[in-house]
Fold this protein.
Amino acid sequence: MFDEYLRSVLIFAGIHVIAAYSFYVPFKTGQISLGQAGFMGVGAYAAGIVTAKLGLPFPLGLLAGGVAAGLVGVGVGFPALRIRGIYLLLLTLGFAEIVQVIILTWDYTGGAQGFQNIPFLENALVWIYAIVAVLIVFFARLERSSLGRAMDAVHEDEMAAEVMGVDVVRVKLFAFGLGAFIAGLAGALFAHYSTYVDSVTFNILIGVEILMFVLVGGGFSYWGPLFGAMFLSLLPEFLRALRDPMELIPVSWTENAPWNRVYEVVYEFLDFENEKRLIVYGLVLVVMMILRPQGLITRNTMRPFRFVQRRMHDA
Amino acid sequence: MPESTASPFLRAAGLTKRFGGFHALRDVDIEVRERAIHAVIGPNGAGKTTLFNLLSGVMAPDSGEIAFLDRPLGRLRPHRRAALGIARTFQNIRLFGHMTVLENVMLGEHWRIYPSLWRSFVKASLHRPLGEAREETEMRRRALETLEFVGLADRRHVMATDLPYGEQRLLELGRALAMEPRLLLLDEPAAGMNIRETEDLDALICKVRDRGVTVVLVEHDMNLVMGISDRITVLNFGDKIAEGSPSEVQLNPAVIEAYLGEEGTL
């Protein structure tokens, strides 16, 4: 259906969306985690063990990846209960570091050589976007449920929420665990598309990128992570496409002109790989925090397009 | 006011709470009768809000025991106390600012259902694949009734922080009432209200009591307190210095001294 390149771009964008949702869930209760890459790592390795080592089919691996990451998530969620803000950020960062070290030293899954020969998932695109669709439906429902409202309340004022009858401990643990579960799914999908993962695949920078997806897209609407992850994942492709019109400028115009150097720098820049991508991300983030700190999408933005319709419009 | 039962509705005995060397409450006993309006008054720093924090479970006492409906509350967490029927408002308004008025009140009904993935997602999706869950519709209907009761129904889609101050206080009251509590702790509900709003509040609190809710009230507005209270407890620097009917308390020399200095009357 798509050419090979576009397909891989869309696959990675989809994985980014799932990862962004994994950040969104704990964020909904006010918990900011930089450790989602760590949970992706747990998911990737658990899924890889199930498929590559035990030879079981992919769906079981996917499930194992999610469940393993989810259980670890609840474990990390306990100390996270008492910590907030910058300290929680550091705790989750430390967790992601620990995962990396364990991956690096665990010989069963290849240690420093990385986990090789993970079976390739043929229909990765379908799998990924099916999961994205399920997540969107899920969050649309969550938004209109007492569980979702309780999570928002915990985000805004834990004490008031508790006095209103919300079991804050349970809600926060649930959110952390569910976020980790979703990150585990993303990790499992990644592992079975790239067929190889190692300790640096899920490094700290990935955690920062996931955070950025949600900050840019908006963390107060369930559409935010989708838009943010898609926007930032496809941005490099759009920028690269800008080179085509540039190439239409006749060489004779630029060759000896004073702006030739500018032309070359811009042309170079538009085709960026990893490091330059982070420069663009950084610029986007700076501009966003100045112009629209709440993210591109807020609750009010999506009100006219509600997924789950109210039964009675007014009441 | 009919005497309900031999055992009191709410009883706190020997409540003590220290912050460092400062006694916020010292050995305070208090008994609240069912369906009464019981006011707790005292100068600033007398320990009134601390008392509410202990009753609602937001803080644990250093010593002393609280029993609600003959059940010792011990270290029961606030959300469990909410489920037993204890609701409160806050002196410094603590609404959920990014939610609408209606959503704030709907949160007050939270404890009724035990929200879970199963209920919110699986079961609800099976019932109404694209509509909202049945319990959600039901909660919204009840929340609207509560809003009508406190007179904020036409403001239901306004963000809570966009309300004027007096209406925010009413919303806090409505949110607490949505819990259908048996005991309602009101922490300075009239603070920041003008005279007309205070009069409306006066009537509203009586209506709440007539619904069968026991009200414990911390308030500085003496007209309000003396007008509606069945019983008054007076705190000063963490000690209980008097208790009785409004007329008894008004004539109590210790109260007059604590409150107004040597001269003057309440």
Remarks:
- Residues 1-5 of chain B have pLDDT under 50 and may be disordered.
- Chain B is about 40% helix and 20% strand.
